[in-house]
C-alpha cells in the first residue's frame, strides 16, 4: 500500500487502555468459577510514522486486574517503540523473545500470566499493523505466505522434542498444493461454529430454552453448556437442553476447572447419559497428567476431554499432546503470546492428530479466531472433521469490523487487518479510569 517500505515504517507510540463492559449485570459469560465476569480487555494502539496507519490489539480479561496488564504492557513499551515493521518481521522470534525474555521482566513470567497476556495484546497489534500494511485481512495474509516464511515466524524454543522446524515445514508444504481449493471453500461456505450463548450458568430456564431454540433456527449443530455448580441442578438443566435440541445434536459441557481429577471422572459418569461430546476444563489447566487420567477413564463413555483457554503457553500444549491428555485442543488467541504462538500450537496439534476447536467469546476473541481458524483449515489441518470454533454473540457491536456469521458459520473477514479495532465511541464510553468506567 504505502509509499513507505516496511523497513521505514516505524512504531512511534504505544497507548494502552483499560476497557470494561458491565456484562456481569446479566450473567453473560458466567460459569462455575467465574460467576460475575465483566468482559474487558487491555487494548493497545500502535501509532506509526505513516499518517493513519495504526495497529490495534487486545487481550481479554474479566474486569478486575486489567489495570495490572496495562501496567505490564507499559513496562514492555520501550521494547517496541522505535522498531520498524521490517525489523520485527525479519526475525520475529527474536522480537518475541525480547518481549517474553526481557531479563528483569521474565522473572514475573516467563511466558505466562500477566506478562504473557500483555505480550499477546502487543503482538496481536503488530500483526494487525502488518496486515493493514499489506492491505489484506490477516487470514489472507497468512494464507498467502510460503511455508518457508511461516516457519521463520515461529519460536520453537522448548518444543523441538515434539515438533521441529523441519517437521512444521513438511506439514505446511504437504497442504500447499491444495490450499486454493480450501480457500475458495471457506470464502463460499465459511467455517463451522458452535455456540455457548445458551449455556451460561446464571440464566433462567426460560432463557436457556429460548436461546436453544434460537441456536437451532440459526443452524447450530453443536451447543455447549456450563456445569459444575451442583450435580442435581446440572442433570436438570441438561435434561432441559436435550429436550430442546434433540438427541442428535452434539452437546458439550464446560466445568471451568471446578473439579479434582477423580471427581471429574465420577461427575462425568453421572452426565454420560446425555451423550456428551466433550468435557471442557474439568480440572486445573496445569494438570497435564490429571487430564490424561480423566481422558483414559472417560474414553469408554465416548466423552472427549478438551482444554486450552487457560493454558498459558506452547509448552503446556506440547505436554497435553504428548501425554494424550486431550481429544480437542482449544488454544486462546490472547492467552498465548499472540498469532505466532497460536500457529505453533496448530502445527503441533496437526502432528499429534488432535483437532483444534479454538476458544472464543469474551470480547474480541471471535473477531480473532475468525482469522485463525481459516488459516488452520486452509494451511495446517486440511480437515473439518470434529472441528468447530466457539462463537458467542456478545459485544461485537463495539468493533469497527465485527465478525460476520452466516447461520452457524464464520465467514472470511474482508477488511485489512486483524479486526480488533474498537469504535472510538466504545473506547471512550467503556474506558475504566480511577476505578470507574468513564462517562
Ligand atoms: C468467563 C468466561 O465467560 C468463560 O466462562 C468462557 O471463556 C468459557 O469457558 C468458554 O468456554 O466460553
Ligand atoms: Mg470454556
Automatic annotation (TrEMBL):
GO terms for biological process: carbohydrate catabolic process. Residues 205-301 form the Mandelate racemase/muconate lactonizing enzyme C-terminal domain. PANTHER family: ENOLASE SUPERFAMILY, MANDELATE RACEMASE, MITOCHONDRIAL ENOLASE SUPERFAMILY MEMBER 1. It catalyses: L-fuconate = 2-dehydro-3-deoxy-L-fuconate + H2O. One of its GO terms (molecular function) is magnesium ion binding. This is L-fuconate dehydratase. It comes from Tieghemostelium lacteum (Slime mold). Its cofactor is Mg(2+). Keywords: Lyase, Magnesium, Metal-binding. SMART domains: MR_MLE. Its EC number is 4.2.1.68. InterPro entries: Enolase-like_C_sf (IPR036849), Enolase-like_N (IPR029017), Enolase_C-like (IPR029065), L-fuconate_dehydratase (IPR034610), Mandelate_racemase_C (IPR013342), Mandelate_racemase_N_dom (IPR013341), RHMD-like (IPR046945).
Amino acid at each position: 500500500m504505502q509509499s513507505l517500505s516496511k523497513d521505514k515504517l516505524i512504531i512511534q507510540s504505544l497507548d494502552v487502555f483499560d476497557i470494561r463492559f458491565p456484562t456481569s449485570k446479566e450473567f453473560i459469560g458466567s460459569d462455575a468459577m467465574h460467576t460475575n465476569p465483566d468482559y474487558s480487555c487491555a487494548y493497545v494502539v500502535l501509532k506509526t510514522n505513516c499518517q493513519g496507519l495504526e495497529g490495534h490489539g487486545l487481550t481479554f480479561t474479566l474486569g478486575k486486574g486489567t489495570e495490572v496488564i496495562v501496567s505490564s504492557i507499559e513496562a514492555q513499551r520501550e521494547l517496541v517503540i522505535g522498531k520498524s515493521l521490517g525489523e520485527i518481521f525479519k526475525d520475529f522470534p527474536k522480537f518475541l523473545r525480547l518481549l517474553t525474555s526481557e531479563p528483569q521482566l521474565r522473572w514475573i513470567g516467563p511466558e505466562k500470566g500477566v506478562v504473557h497476556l500483555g505480550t499477546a495484546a502487543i503482538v496481536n497489534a503488530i500483526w494487525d499493523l502488518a496486515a493493514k500494511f499489506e492491505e489484506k485481512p490477516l487470514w489472507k495474509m497468512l494464507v498467502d505466505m510460503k511455508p518457508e516464511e511461516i516457519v521463520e515466524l515461529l519460536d520453537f524454543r522448548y518444543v523441538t522434542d515434539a515438533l521441529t522446524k523441519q517437521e512444521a515445514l513438511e506439514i505446511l508444504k504437504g497442504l500447499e498444493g491444495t490450499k486454493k481449493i480450501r480457500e475458495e471453500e471457506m470464502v463460499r461456505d465459511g467455517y463451522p461454529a458452535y455456540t455457548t450463548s445458551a449455556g451460561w450458568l446464571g440464566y433462567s430456564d426460560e432463557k436457556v430454552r429460548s436461546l436453544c431454540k434460537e441456536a437451532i433456527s440459526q443452524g447450530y449443530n453443536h451447543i455447549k453448556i456450563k456445569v459444575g455448580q451442583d450435580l442435581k441442578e446440572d442433570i436438570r438443566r441438561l435434561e432441559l437442553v436435550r429436550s430442546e435440541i434433540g438427541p442428535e445434536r452434539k452437546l458439550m459441557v464446560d466445568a471451568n476447572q471446578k473439579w479434582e481429577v477423580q471427581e471429574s471422572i465420577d461427575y462425568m459418569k453421572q452426565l454420560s447419559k446425555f451423550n456428551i461430546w466433550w468435557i471442557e476444563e474439568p480440572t486445573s489447566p496445569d494438570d497435564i497428567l490429571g487430564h490424561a487420567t480423566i481422558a483414559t477413564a472417560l474414553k469408554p463413555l465416548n466423552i472427549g476431554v478438551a482444554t486450552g483457554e487457560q493454558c498459558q503457553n506452547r509448552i503446556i500444549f506440547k505436554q497435553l499432546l504428548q501425554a494424550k491428555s486431550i481429544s480437542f485442543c482449544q488454544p486462546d488467541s490472547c492467552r498465548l503470546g499472540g498469532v505466532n504462538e497460536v500457529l505453533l500450537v496448530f502445527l503441533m496439534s496437526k502432528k499429534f492428530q488432535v483437532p483444534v476447536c479454538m476458544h472464543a467469546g469474551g470480547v474480541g476473541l471471535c473477531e480473532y479466531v475468525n482469522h485463525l481458524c481459516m488459516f488452520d483449515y486452509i494451511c495446517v489441518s486440511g480437515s473439518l472433521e470434529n472441528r468447530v470454533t466457539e462463537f458467542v454473540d456478545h459485544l461485537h457491536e463495539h468493533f469497527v469490523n465485527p465478525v460476520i456469521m452466516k447461520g452457524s458459520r464464520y465467514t472470511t473477514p474482508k477488511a485489512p487487518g486483524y479486526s480488533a479495532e474498537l469504535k472510538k465511541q466504545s473506547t471512550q464510553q467503556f474506558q475504566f479510569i480511577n476505578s470507574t468506567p468513564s462517562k
